[in-house]
Specification:
By secondary structure, the chain is an alpha+beta fold. A hairpin with a 6-residue loop joins strand 12 and strand 13. Helix 2 (48-67) crosses helix 10. Keywords: Aminoacyl-tRNA synthetase, ATP-binding, Cytoplasm, Ligase, Nucleotide-binding, Protein biosynthesis. Its EC number is 6.1.1.15.
Length: 564
């Protein structure tokens, strides 16, 4: 028998007004509807209604993981430092890693992901090719010391996540495990009712090669992605690439210095010369593990420091400061040009292709140079796609102008390869009796984040509006107020529960019908059944929360309709 939950006994306190610190729709509504409660910045409690929704998402994830043969385990969240030192991630994670010491001074961390620990587990348990392939997963609380936790449960310091790991003896096996997860994720998000895009991505601190993100388009999203309206190309902006296309046969005059006083910025230079910013070459100075590096991009584009950092990882990238110029008289602030630079590595975006000519700094204050040609007057040490992607940039697949959109990351899959297996010498005995190095995949679903993403995508002006698969109940029965109506509401709730439905019944005494109706809209159960003015006739009103459609039904017809 399904559960019947009386609101008179439910710990729920709805709010009429938005919390003062709430920025996103999901943050406002999940708090107002009594699903979550803030304990501290980025730390949230799940209240009874919220816990039901969270458990429903967890159930869907678990069912689809089990369906591909994955095996569930539960590993500790408190982890020793040593495995993360072995892979370099103790340092690579930087300030986002929660670090702590025990009473004996030993270092520990709160797990953000568990690649190292799963690798050690498989090394201990699997010794032969006969033990593989294997897929292991857990659904667990993860920790990340966010600098600015915000947007409610969208960006917290602790969060619920499903992380799974595949272990295979060949790259072909890894590709199969990756495909299994990709298909399972599509089924998960379809069952949850989440609109999503699969986009190419970068691996970042996770390492590995192939990587894709599952994004839920929403204005509150912190991820920006691009998609092509003419083909199926879609990518995280950090994964978009621009092909290097050298310019052949162009005629350019010799380098010519220009007197350009008080023009240390692209804007002032372009105004002074009366040229578009795209004709100039911007040279951004950064420090890579303490070494000054110049990054050249067209003057009308910005350097994406996130992209640059991904390209150069695990090296640390930071902007230069005024102090960095003190011991480098060859670097003239605001007037740096790539021609004649010494002891400086020069990285350029592919748009600064060989044969292109630019107006750029002349390496002395108040002067610029024109007709500075890439490949003739300066050499590029490394070409890296590092500009901020803009709306209308050409699609790498078909050339059509790309479109930008915002989204919430709800899943990420990686082909890790042998990075972690190498760190822990994870080998099994192969068919030929010789050791075989295992190859891995890593796959995550943001379980608590999926709740927020669904709220963002499905809510309306009245409140939350859950898909049935994850709603806290199948039907919300509302007693309009009088004793007869309450009696009928409780009776029909019991019948619905006996029919196998999950029922939330508002039997609160002393609460006006208007407040009950408002709360029913706010809480967002997909069907609302009202015992109102025709209760004496045994007639109820059934309302679809999403469409607003209403119809009057007898008790028997209502039970039959809702039971399906």
């Amino acid at each position: 028998m399904a559960q019947v939950q009386r609101m008179s006994r439910l710990m729920v306190k709805t709010l009429r007004d938005d919390p003062a610190d709430a920025e996103t729709l999901s943050h406002k509504l999940l708090v107002r509807a009594g699903y979550v409660r803030r304990n501290a910045a980025g730390i949230w409690s799940w209240l009874p209604l919220g816990k039901r929704v969270l458990e429903n998402v967890t159930r869907v994830v678990r069912e689809e993981m089990d369906a591909i043969g994955a095996q569930e385990v539960l590993l500790p969240a408190l982890l020793p430092k040593e495995p993360y030192e072995a892979t370099g991630r103790w340092e690579e994670y930087g300030a986002e890693l929660f670090r702590l010491k025990d009473r004996k001074g030993a270092d520990y961390l709160l797990g953000p992901t568990h690649e190292e620990i799963f690798t050690q587990l498989v090394k201990d348990q699997c010794t032969s090719y006969k033990d593989l392939p294997v897929i292991l997963y857990q659904i667990q609380t993860k920790y990340r010391d966010e600098a600015r936790p915000r947007s409610g449960i969208l960006r917290g310091r602790e969060f619920q996540m499903k992380d799974s790991y595949s272990f295979d003896t060949s790259d072909e096996g890894l590709a199969e495990s990756y495909a299994l997860h990709r298909e399972a994720y599509v089924r998960i998000f379809e069952r949850l009712g989440l609109k999503h895009k699969i986009v190419s991505a970068v691996s970042g601190a996770m390492g590995g090669s192939a990587s894709e993100e599952f994004l839920a388009p929403a204005p509150a999203g912190e991820d920006t992605f691009v998609y092509c309206p003419s083909c199926d190309y879609a990518a995280n902006t950090e994964a978009v690439t621009f092909a290097l296309a050298p310019v052949e046969g162009a005629e350019h005059g010799p380098v010519e210095e220009l007197d350009t006083p008080d023009t240390p910025t692209i804007e002032t230079l372009a105004d002074h010369l009366g040229v578009p910013a795209s004709a100039t070459l911007k040279n951004l100075l950064v420090k890579v593990d303490g070494e000054i590096v110049a990054v050249g991009v067209p003057g009308n584009r910005e350097v994406d420091l996130g992209k640059l950092g991904d390209h150069l990882a695990p090296a640390e990238v930071e902007l230069v400061t005024a102090e960095d110029f003190v011991d480098r008289p060859d670097l003239v602030r605001g007037y740096v040009g790539p021609q004649g630079l010494e002891k400086v590595r020069y990285i350029a975006d592919p748009r600064v292709a060989p044969g292109t000519a630019w107006i750029t700094g002349a390496n002395r204050a108040g002067f610029h140079a024109k007709n500075v040609v890439a490949g003739r007057d300066f050499q590029v040490d490394d070409y890296l796609d590092v500009v901020v992607v803009e709306d209308g940039d050409p699609c790498p697949s078909c050339g059509t102008g790309l479109k930008l959109d915002r989204a919430i990351e709800i899943g990420h899959i990686f082909q890790l390869g042998r990075k972690y297996a190498d760190a822990f010498q994870l080998d099994v005995l192969g068919q030929n009796g010789k050791p075989v190095r295992v190859t891995m995949g890593s796959y995550g679903v943001g379980v608590s984040r999926a709740v927020a993403a669904l709220a963002e995508q499905t809510a309306d002006e009245q409140g939350l509006c859950w898909p049935r698969e994850i709603a806290p109940a199948d039907v919300h029965v509302v007693a309009a107020g009088k004793a007869l109506q309450t009696e009928l509401a409780l009776d029909v709730a019991e019948q619905l529960g006996a029919a196998g439905l999950r029922v939330l019944v508002d039997d609160r005494a002393g609460v006006s019908p208007g407040v009950k109706f408002t709360d029913a809209e706010l809480i967002g159960v997909p069907k609302i059944l009202v015992a109102g003015r025709r209760s004496a006739e045994g007639v109820l009103e059934l309302k679809d929360r999403r469409t607003g459609e209403r119809e009057e039904l007898t008790v028997a017809d209502a039970v039959a309709r809702l039971r399906g």
